[in-house]
Design a protein that fits this description.
This is Serine protease 23. This protein is α+β, with helices and mostly antiparallel strands and 451 residues long. It has a single domain, classed as Trypsin-like serine proteases (Thrombin, subunit H, Beta Barrel), CATH 2.40.10.
């Protein structure tokens, strides 16, 4: 038996060309970076967390518009934004958005420490638009199969709602390990997650109120927990700020649709779409911390009844990190409705899913949503809903975040070697994921299932 295994496993590689060894070596390097949230050591400032392949040869054009930051009146300062959501928050939209609607969703605002305040409109390539349409069609098909499977199942497993857990992570060794070391705190009192040594993913409401930035750029900082043992004064909250190392911010990106200023000279209530509540922060210097892999939230990995996780600094004046997990109560194309415990300071935390890697015997984790907390919002028909929300990372948001980080949504230095994610069709409860790179194909089971 051992001889047979040797012949099957070893000889084919020994008899292969040298490029096979190079391919395998490159594949392992990339996959290790994706699995553990580390960049390959030979690469500097390059995104390595791509798990989907966008169309190549795309050349987006953009139009930049300067936007002066107008001061708000006292009445504006005290106004609470009205949160809204269209059909995308009621279920799976069965009509594709037009190209102009997609481009409107891709438009963004950028603020910098040099006083930059601009709106950027991007002219997206048609191949990219069609890619989004194909993904949406695939999601609808998966959703229908999921619903059919549940309807036909005699032993349907009930969804647990409200059975949430929250644990304080106090051990210093655990705090300095992934995924807990990826959590950050913003100077506005929110949470966030590192997705590179320079980039923090958080909620737009943590940086912008729909009219203007919550803090001036020179005052905006991101805090990471100190690696050292904290003093009793720091742990109890007396000197809690010293428990963090605060890093200044260079740039902040938010979706343009998150801003809802009335026309100049007119007044009106701010109406903000809940599915656009995400932002990217670029730091002035790199952090010596692990960072999380980023992926797309799909029916397969964050569908109804699936388990999600996140950690955050829940207390405004204590450096205590809390971890929790819960099940997804309901999900739509753009948002997750879940029952994870949280506080206003938890907003902005990265919601992730995990899969047990049997080969490496480690958990592979991917951020697939941003926690935005318990919110009251209005649907198109005026119906008021009160739910616990997380904003899903869709391919469009994924591409937009990539564009903010690299200036390109289709390619990067590692894009040609990045893995391609394909979710197999039936049976739905036997979801399989194929990671394909060059000639090497590895089939991994159970990516979409909770282990």
């Amino acid at each position: 038996m051992w001889i047979l295994l040797f012949i099957l496993l070893v000889l084919p590689f020994n008899s292969s060309a040298v490029d096979w060894k190079e391919t395998i070596s490159k594949y392992r390097t990339i996959r290790e970076g994706l699995a553990n949230g580390h960049k390959p050591s030979s690469v500097k400032k390059v995104v390595t967390w791509h798990t989907i392949q966008f169309p190549s040869n795309t050349s987006p054009k953009f139009l930049v518009q300067d936007e002066p930051d107008e001061g708000d009146t006292e009445e504006d300062e005290n106004e609470i934004p009205r949160l809204i959501c269209g059909a995308e928050c009621q279920g799976y939209v069965y009509q594709n958005a037009t190209k102009s609607q997609v481009q409107s969703s891709f438009a963004y605002k950028v603020f910098s420490d040099e006083g930059e305040n601009k709106v950027v409109d991007v002219d997206l390539d048609d191949a990219f638009i069609h890619y989004l349409y194909r993904w949406q069609h695939g999601e609808r098909r998966l959703k229908r199969r999921e619903e059919e499977a549940k309807a036909n199942s005699r032993s349907r497993r009930g969804i647990v709602i409200g059975d949430d857990t929250r644990f304080e992570i106090s051990d210093r060794e655990w705090l300095n390990q992934n995924p807990f070391s990826t959590n950050v705190k913003t100077s506005t009192g929110c949470s966030g997650v590192l997705i590179s040594n320079l980039h923090v993913l958080t909620a737009a409401s943590c940086v912008h109120n729909g009219r203007k930035m919550l803090e001036k750029m020179r005052d905006f900082h991101v805090g990471i927990r100190q690696k050292r043992q904290l003093t009793p004064e720091e742990e109890m909250g007396k000197n809690w700020k010293e428990a963090f190392r605060w890093v200044p911010v260079k740039k902040i990106y938010v979706p343009n649709e998150w801003s809802s200023k009335p026309p100049k000279g007119q007044r009106g209530k701010v109406a903000l779409p809940i599915d656009k509540n995400y932002a990217l922060i670029i730091l002035k210097r790199e952090l010596d911390r692990d960072f999380m892999n980023v992926s797309v939230g799909s029916v397969a990995n964050v569908g109804e009844g699936k388990r999600v996780h996140f950690s955050s600094f829940d207390d405004i004046a204590r450096p205590t990190l809390s971890y929790r997990f819960c099940t997804v109560e309901e999900e739509t194309m753009e948002v997750l409705y879940q029952e994870c415990d949280g506080t206003p300071q938890s907003v902005g935390a990265g919601v992730y899913v995990r899969r047990w890697n049997r080969e490496r015997r480690v958990w592979d984790r991917s951020v697939v949503a941003i926690f935005t907390g318990h919110q009251t919002f209005y649907l198109e028909d005026g119906t008021v809903r009160d739910r616990n929300i997380a904003v899903k990372i869709t391919p469009l948001k994924f591409a937009q975040i990539c564009y903010w980080m690299t200036g390109d949504y289709g390619q990067s230095e590692w894009m040609n070697a990045a893995v391609i994610l394909i979710i197999a069709a039936p049976p739905f409860n036997e979801d399989r994921v194929y990671w394909r790179q060059s000639a090497l194909v590895a089939t991994l089971h159970g990516y979409a299932r909770e282990v």
